[in-house]
Write a structure and sequence with these properties.
Layout lengths: L2 E2 L14 H10 L4 E7 L19 H14 L5 E8 L6 H10 L4 E4 L20 H17 L4 E2 L11 H17 L4 E4 H6 L6 H9 L3 E5 L11 H14 L2 E2 L10
Parallel strand pairs: 1-2, 2-3, 3-4, 4-5, 6-7, 7-8
Helix pairs in contact: 4-5, 5-7, 7-8
Length: about 260
C-alpha cells in the first residue's frame, strides 16, 4: 500500500499503542502517506458520552501530537490530520467549527449510528427492517452529497439480513450516489482481519457493477495492523472478484 488514511489512537478508548509507534510501523512497511483519523469528538449535549470516541477536550492534544509527528518524520512519510466522522445533522456544523480550529484536513464518513446517535440504532446491529436500511442509505447519501467527506469508510457496515432484493435495491442507489459524488468507498481491513460481517461481498459486487472507486483502509487500532500482508492479499482478491476500480490515494474534500 502507498497510503492509509484510516488510523486511530488510544483516545477512542478501543485502540492501543502510541502515535509514534503507528508512524514507525507504517514507514517500516513501506507506506508513503499516513492519515490519522481517530473517532471524532462530537459536541453532544452535556452528560452524554458515546464511549467510543475521543472527548472534545482531547482534540487539541490529538491535533498537536499528529502535527508534531508530521514535522518530525517529514523526510520519511507524509502525515495528515483527519477525523472519522458520523454525519449527525444536529451537531455537524458545530463539529465543523471545532475541527477547523485545529486545522483538521479531512473527514472520513463512517455512519456508526443513525439519526444523531442518542437513543438511535447502531448501524452494525443485525436487522431485518427495511426502514433501518433505507435510513442508513439516505443519511449517508446526504452526507456524501454535502461535499465535506473525503471517502466513505466501511460503507457495508449496515447489517441487513432481511429481503436481499430490498438490500440490493437500496445499496445500488447508495453506490450510484457515491459514483455521482466521485466518492471512494473503503474496503475495510479490520473487518477482514477480525472476520466481521463486512466487507460484504454482496455489496462490493454491486459497487463493481456501478463503477465505484474503492480504496483500501487499514482501520488501524494497533501498530501491528500495518504488518498483515494476508489481509492485503484478501482485499486484492475481493477487488479482482468483484471487478472493482481500486485507487491508491485521494484528494481531500473541501475544507472542513
Amino acid at each position: 500500500m502507498k497510503a492509509n488514511y484510516h488510523t486511530h489512537t488510544w483516545r477512542c478508548m478501543h485502540a492501543s499503542g502510541t502515535e509514534k509507534e503507528y508512524v514507525e510501523r507504517a514507514i517500516k512497511n513501506g507506506l508513503k502517506i499516513l492519515g490519522f483519523s481517530d473517532h471524532t469528538p462530537y459536541p453532544f449535549p452535556e452528560g452524554y458520552s458515546s464511549g467510543m470516541r475521543m472527548r472534545v477536550d482531547q482534540l487539541e492534544d490529538y491535533a498537536n501530537t499528529v502535527l508534531s509527528l508530521k514535522e518530525k518524520y517529514q523526510k520519511d512519510i507524509e502525515i495528515h490530520l483527519g477525523l472519522e466522522v458520523e454525519y449527525y445533522p444536529a451537531y455537524f456544523e458545530k463539529l465543523q467549527r471545532l475541527a477547523a480550529t485545529y486545522s483538521v484536513e479531512y473527514f472520513l464518513l463512517a455512519q456508526h449510528c443513525m439519526g444523531n446517535e442518542i437513543g438511535e440504532v447502531w448501524s452494525g446491529a443485525e436487522t431485518k427492517d427495511p426502514q433501518v436500511l433505507k435510513r442508513y442509505c439516505d443519511q449517508t447519501g446526504e452526507a456524501m452529497e454535502s461535499g465535506y467527506f473525503t471517502y466513505f469508510a466501511h460503507p457495508d457496515l449496515i447489517r441487513f439480513t432481511g429481503d436481499m432484493n430490498v438490500y440490493e435495491a437500496e445499496m445500488r442507489k447508495l453506490c450510484q450516489r457515491a459514483k455521482a459524488c466521485n466518492m471512494p468507498l473503503e474496503i475495510n481491513f479490520l473487518g477482514l482481519y477480525e472476520g466481521r460481517h463486512y466487507p460484504n461481498e454482496r455489496f462490493w459486487k454491486i459497487a463493481g457493477e456501478e463503477g465505484c472507486q474503492v480504496i483500501f483502509g487499514i482501520d488501524a487500532h494497533e501498530p501491528d495492523a500495518f504488518s498483515r500482508p494476508q489481509v492485503y492479499e484478501a482485499a486484492e482478491a475481493l477487488v479482482r472478484k468483484c471487478g472493482l476500480s481500486l485507487i491508491e490515494t485521494v484528494e481531500f474534500a473541501k475544507p472542513v
